[in-house]
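Slide 14.
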Amino acid sequence: MDRAEIERQLAVAIDIVEEAGAIALRYFRQPLEVDNKAGDVAFDPVTAADREVEAQVRARLAEHFPDHGILGEEEGFTAGSNDACWVLDPIDGTRAFMSGMPIWGMLLGLTVAGRPVAGLMHQPYIGETFAGLSDAGSWFQRGADRRELQTRATDKIEDAVLYCTDPGLFLETDTMAAFDRVASTCKLRRFGSDCYGYCLVAMGQADLVIEDLLQPYDIVPLIPIIEGAGGIVTSRDGGSPNDGGFVVAAANRELHARTLDRLSRQ
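Slide 15: predicted structure.
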């Protein structure tokens, strides 16, 4: 698939997700029934907004791209007949959504032969869309305001602004210790960010996001946004982040290398 076709498909995807934003807004800051997908084991919330947004986005994707696969948080994987697959999180940040915080977002990414090539995050309450192509730039749009995104040049952990949704993501002693080695050194640490923190790295407002226990739909749509802005996203050991797990997103390669080194120390 050539770049022009990827750009065309991303433009269609943005229209699809922005249209579905109206569904999410019908539920946001309204009385809301919340189900727990994890039962008595943990708290993994899901709402009607998650389910309805995913159903609509899937239907629209199937209309426009019938040969493509779809991987979504609520409905799982639907195989396609070629090597393109959409990765969908209808409401990333359901905990924020159900508690009225406008830092949740709607995520949709495109992979080709397993490689993330395009992605977007739409926040309908504040009317913002972040979108990117992994090797061709990323941008932010709110109304008529569109600007190209560029990550910062911060290269020292001591000067970095770090985001993480919740330190409780680090369930193992070694992963919590690794996170603390970086977080305790950063200039500023902020929590409760969900997908928005990654977009702030792409925008040049933050420098690092470190999280664990991610699923592919939590991170794949965000990778092209950060990479297109000049950043880097990997696993803890510098490998592919596409399967989720322990993920490190950094504004540039120098900061990323120093962060991985600090995470690996005992």
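Speaker note: The chain has two domains: 3-148, 157-264.
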